[in-house]
Amino acid sequence: MPQASPDPRPAPQAPHGPHAPSEALPSFWLSLIPVLALVAMLLVNVRWLGSADNHVPLVLATAAAGLLATLVLRQPWKRLEKGLIHSITMALQACLILMVVGMLIGAWIDAGVVPLMIVWGLELISPSVFLVTACVVCCIVSLATGSSWTTAGTVGVALIGVGTAMGLEPGMVAGAVVSGSYFGDKMSPLSDTTNLAPAMAGATLIEHVRHMVWTVTPALLGALAVYAWLGMGHTSGPESLGRVRAVVDLIEGHFVLSPWLIAPPVVVLVLVARNFPALPALLVGTFLASLIGFVVQAHSDPRQAVQTACAVLYGGYAIDLSGALGADATEVQREAVTTVQSLLDGRGGMKSMMGTVALIFCALSFGGIMEASGMLGAIAKKLLSVVRGTGSLIAATIFTCLGVNVLASDQYMAIVVPGRMFRTAYLDRRLHPKNLSRALEDSGTVTSALIPWNTCGAQMATVLGVATAAYWPYAILNWLCPLVSIVYGMTGFTITRITDEEAQRYRDA
Predict the structure, then answer these.
(1) How far apart are CA 321 and CA 244, in angstroms?
(2) What is the Cα 309 distance to its own chain's centre?
């Protein structure tokens, strides 16, 4: 177990990465202009245009930063371009993993792995401990898919309906769903943010996930304890579970759910636990699922099965249940068809990840220009002027991520910008990069769902039909994680340090 230790080192200086300018840093207020321009364009895009795609505002903000750097700061374009390319290069491994993750999700759905895990999760529901079970179910599904949006928009919707039928306050149910959904979004190796955070900090995926266990475990246990208390004494008749039963029956009627299907996730987890590189481990899980699914689902035409598998790996899984019910089907059964259709249809595939990869490229381009021009360093210097120790550095990281989520309305920006801003500061204090990557996820990922105008908060409120203001007090994991991270920073608990030589290697990487 990592031990706490005093930090006798002086306060860090402004970032001085391999592409930082050698001249004096520009002024703080001048450096804020591209940031404010980005915030304004993102707000217009999300609030006025109603779009969740922030690619164009990021490109325009990158252009604004480039123009300011070349025309006002007189920076040579070659230096800015070099910084931009270097910034993107840092996330190439994460982007490769994301594309493989898309293939894996499609293969796992096609083989029956994800349907099996969803059914197992749904069958855990008990009326007396509904909130606890709802959170656990969403933890299981989000770990399987790596997506909070998918989990909340599918299983979460069903759970909201069941919880409301039981007489529970919708805000409570939605809070449990959001907490469970973001547990997997934060911890699953399949999640885009889980891959992006270590890429920004300079840590590996395995180091990052293991280090997050220390903060997410008490946050999850605290959330489950509160949900158990809130649901204490609640009883409900079996008729309220009819919707979930209909979903389970429909999935079981479409897939052969053999226990052998649990092998691919088990193999992936074992490989990851044994420090096997993430990219080949995920590829093994992808093709193992396709092979087992071919046997378990008993495809009659091998050629067609291979064609379908290849199509799923690229374009995602497709399912059509429109003919699954007869004319005498009940309303509950029709709702089950809609739920399962939205749960599985169009999910996974390499193609589904390309929008996220493009968004990461756009965000990193903005960060690269800001860093190479010295504007990011000027902002970091201002923020770091109030930092006096490791605890305040981690707290500054947490609040910066929260601030970017509030101002920029995008969780990717809340990871990319603080990650680029504070990376050198952590190395100057001889703090392992995984401390930074954990802080980025403990705030940047989970707090995005608590802000009504953030794309994540808007998505959760829309799909669950519950206002952000109604569920955020009950999304306990989402606001408890940052608090635990700050406490660890102040006490030094689980904070990992490195030597001067290791810090230099991370700088040169």
Answers:
(1) 17
(2) 26
Instruction: Find residue 497's DSSP bridge partners.
Output: 431
Tens-place pLDDT, residues 410-434:
788 789 888 888 888 899 999 999 9
Task: Tell me the CA distances in angstroms from 478 to 91, 182, 364, 452, one per residue in order.
Answer: 25, 7, 25, 14
**118-132, 392-406, 490-504: lowest mean pLDDT where?**
118-132
Give the pLDDT confidence score for residue 430 in this predicted structure.
Answer: 94
DSSP string, 151-219: HIIIIIHHHHHHHHHTT--HHHHHHHHHHHHHHHHHH-TT-HHHHHHHHHHT--HHHHHHHHHHHHHHH
Confidence of residue 389 (pLDDT cuts 50, 70, 90): confident
Phi then psi dihedrals of residue 327, to 5 deg: -70, -25
Q: Measured at the alpha carbon of residue 51, what is the angle toward residues 45 and 55, in degrees to the nearest 5?
A: 70
What is the token pair recorded at 501?
Answer: 């030589």
Q: How many residues does the chain have?
A: 509
Extract the tokens encoding 407: 């101002």
Q: Please state the pTM of the whole predicted model.
A: 0.69
Cα distances from 319 to residues 108, 151, 323, 349, in angstroms, run 14, 18, 11, 14
Q: Do 205 and 278 contact (CB within 8 A), yes or no?
A: yes
* Crossing angle of helices 375-384 and 354-372, rounded to 10°: 80
d(Cα 223, Cα 287) in Å, to the nearest integer? 36
φ/ψ (deg, to 5) at 431: -105, 130
Residue 446's alpha-carbon distances to 39, 189, 270, 272, 442, in angstroms, are: 20, 16, 26, 23, 6
- Domain range list for the chain: 28-92+356-508
Q: How far is CA 114 from CA 35, 348, 407, in A?
A: 40, 11, 36
Q: 10 Å Cβ neighbour count for 400?
A: 23
Record the tokens describing residue 463, joined without a space: 């799909």
The number of CA neighbours under 13 Å toward the Cβ of 294 is 15
> HEC states along 337-403?
HHHHHHHHCCECCHHHHHHHHHHHHHHHHHHHHHHHCCHHHHHHHHHHCCCCCHHHHHHHHHHHHHH
How far apart (Å, rounded) are the C-alpha atoms in residues 134 and 147?
Answer: 16
